[in-house]
Specification:
The chain has 223 residues and is of the alpha/beta class. Bound molecules: adenosine-5'-diphosphate and magnesium ion.
Length: 223
């Protein structure tokens, strides 16, 4: 199998129980993402976008189906094994940035390394790469929204992941700043990452190699 195939999901489903009811949050999803690809996930609120992202990021386990990440089947792994995989192989970016307010830019970017990362320390290089060399010692509250999201992107790259997942990364940004963040994500995919972005932003969707539209847990491909 090709090393370029980062995500390979087949029949991936997640069913939540709510009392006597069950909710098909994701139903029999098939998905392949290779290195360098930029995938957008669109769909109404409640359609299963976050569920899909959480499964791809090993934050959650599927109810059924197969998920190979970097060629390794992860669907049956224990929570402990999943923790290791998501630290080493996946980077996450969220709408609310999730920076630690009492840590500087540099410390925030360095944080994932404190959890037993093996990769070489690339903190300063990553901060340069997202254009924040002049902000290393600043605290999150001293930054703009766009800068905070760039710190979050640098942090997501700290352990040199193959897969970058972003859930509404421009949801809290104005249009121009959001566009810069999209450009940055696009650039990262061009440099060899597999990138999957959940978004309502048509500007992001336009940049994508492929758009996955979710409706009630069902994926429909587009473009
Ligand atoms: P989206 O991100 O597109 O808004 P989600 O993936 O968060 O959608 O949710 C998909 C469906 O699954 C929704 O009906 C939601 O209510 C349900 N759901 C999500 N998480 C849970 C959970 N932990 N327990 C029960 N139902 C959930
Ligand atoms: Mg969501």
């Amino acid at each position: 199998m090709s090393d370029d195939l980062i995500v390979q999901a087949q029949g991936l489903s997640k069913v939540y129980r709510r009392g006597s009811e069950s909710v098909r949050a994701l139903w029999r999803a098939d998905l392949r993402v290779i290195r360098g690809q930029f995938i957008a996930v669109a769909g109404a609120s409640g359609s299963g976008k976050t569920t899909l992202l959480n499964l791809l990021g090993c934050l959650d386990r599927p109810s059924s189906g197969s998920y190979r990440l970097n060629g390794r089947e992860v669907a049956g792994l224990s929570e402990r094994e999943l923790v290791g995989i998501r630290r080493r192989e996946v980077g996450f970016v969220f709408q609310q940035f999730h920076l630690i307010p009492t840590l500087t830019v540099r410390e925030n970017v360095q944080l994932p390394r404190m959890f037993g990362a093996q990769a070489a320390d690339r903190t300063d290089e990553l901060i340069d790469r997202v254009g924040l060399a002049h902000r290393r010692r600043h605290l999150p509250r001293q930054l703009s929204g766009g800068e905070m999201q760039r710190v979050a992107i640098a942090r997501a790259l700290a352990n040199h992941p193959a897969l970058l997942l972003a859930d509404e990364p421009t949801g809290n940004l104005d249009t121009a700043t959001g566009r810069q963040v999209v450009e940055m994500l696009r650039g990262l995919s061009a440099s060899g990452l597999a990138v999957v972005v959940v978004t309502h932003n048509p500007a992001i969707a336009r940049q994508a190699d492929q758009i996955l539209n979710l409706t009630d847990g069902l994926i429909r491909e587009e473009g």
